[in-house]
Amino acid sequence: WQPDAWSYTVAMAAASSCHQHETVGRLFAKVSSEPQLRASVAAYNLAIEARLRMGDLAGARRIYSRMAQGGSGYPPPRTDTFNVMIRALGERGRPYSWVLKEMARACVDPDVITISMMLKLQPTTAAARGVWRWGFQRIRQSDERMWHHLIEAHVRLGEPERAAALLGLMEEKCGHPVDSVRSHNLYLRALLAEGKPLEALAHFQKMCADDEEGGGGADEEEDGGSAEGPMRERQGSTLEGPCPEATVEADSEGWVPLCTSPRWLKAPAPAPDAHSFTIALSALRQLHSVGDDIEKAAQLSDQPSEQPELMQGAGPVKGRTSALSVKGILAQQPAQQPAQQATEWSPLSTSQSLEALPSLSSASLRGRAISKRAAELFEEAEARGLLPTDGPPPAAVAHALICACGADVDLAVQMWRSHLRPKMLGTALEDAGLEGTGVEGAGVQSQQAAYHALLRVCGVARRPDEALRIVYAIKR
């Protein structure tokens, strides 16, 4: 049996996924030297990417030149060829404007993947908006993925407060309903980036409640599927039009308004997925710092003369929750609250549970309550079938679960022993069979993430002795 050209392409893809770029080059050279074999565009794309990953720009351009010049046996470049080049250069911090010029010279139009990839590579929100406008001029109709990458750029680059407004524009102007769990996860991430873990947990609870009530779909009756949505989009009105039924505040560029009450937030939310639970665990981790801010705010409130501007209700610092604003949200609690209720505090069970946070004056008491809720979230995700019950969870879930313990090393170690270690031991033999292949098993990745989270907790708690013990455990 002799491998054909497609067999070589599959082998190249496997080597590329393992970051074995030299192997990709050898396989491409072999398939190119066989006269009876004709390498596909996918094989050329993989060869170009391997050259760029190794820093061989000249070699990558030589392979591309064969495709651009044409001739017998050389396939012409496609959109995915240029996408590969943009991603490989952009991820290495290299300029890729010449790739866009080659794309125009070859009369190849960018697609949604091209725009989404370029949005992901931008260093500032201004640059992301420029890519957005450039893409709108060159593609026929927007895609939900484009909107998601635009919103993710705002979350990542310091303007998460615009996420809700952008999701509203995606629905109102372009006919893409905000009913996917990915859209709501982006909103949860934006709330965390703003320093609003309580709001994130409340929205997560809404997703769980709507799922139990049989919801999970967006309201499609209101203008979402109108035929003039794509037309308005092509005219560029999506970048300027105000959100209906909302307070509008244009930014300095007049690019996109801020909506204080987007319509999509009133519609039923989709059921959460595993990533939603990971974000909720991260919100629980943020609650530790919020509790510390509340205690500091309580101390400041006893000395109003020292900070007159702060006590007069100055706005929160961008990117962080104001301690006083959080205290105000949670201050509506009974004057006398039994001490035993503090240990039963749960930020996701009822709306009244949010009011119990100030009563947890002890940091250790608050930490135990939050870590207990984190364990309950983990078990709920398993019960929903979102996490494996007989294997290790994803690395992100393991990391977030440990970090939800805040600065309590004992709670973090207990969480590791009770919820993670037994699951990882079951896959140790399976992962051992992957040694030497360059591929890490799920158990190894999850275990490393948990160890890193434990070290982070030790760092926050300033416990170098415990960190040293964990390092010894990793070596064993």
Shape: globular
And the CATH topology of one domain?
Serine Threonine Protein Phosphatase 5, Tetratricopeptide repeat
The CATH homology group name of one domain: Tetratricopeptide repeat domain
Overall pLDDT confidence: 76
Low-confidence stretches: 215-254, 304-361, 431-439
Describe this structure in words.
- With 476 residues, the chain is mainly α.
- The protein has a domain at 1-108: Tetratricopeptide repeat domain (Serine Threonine Protein Phosphatase 5, Tetratricopeptide repeat), CATH 1.25.40.
- 59% of the residues lie in helices and 1% in strands.
- The protein contains 22 helices and two strands.
- Strands 1-2 form a two-stranded antiparallel ribbon.
- A hairpin with an 8-residue loop joins strand 1 and strand 2.
- Helix 2 (21-33) packs antiparallel against helix 3 (41-53), helix 9 (144-156) runs antiparallel to helix 10 and helix 11 (181-193) packs parallel to helix 14.
- The longest helix is centred in the middle third of the chain and has 28 residues, at 274-301.
- The radius of gyration is 26 Å and the shape is globular.
- The two termini are 45 Å apart.
- The model is unreliable at 215-254, 304-361 and 431-439 (pLDDT under 50).
- Residues 210-251, 299-319 are annotated as: Disordered.
- Residues 210-225 have a biased composition (Acidic residues).
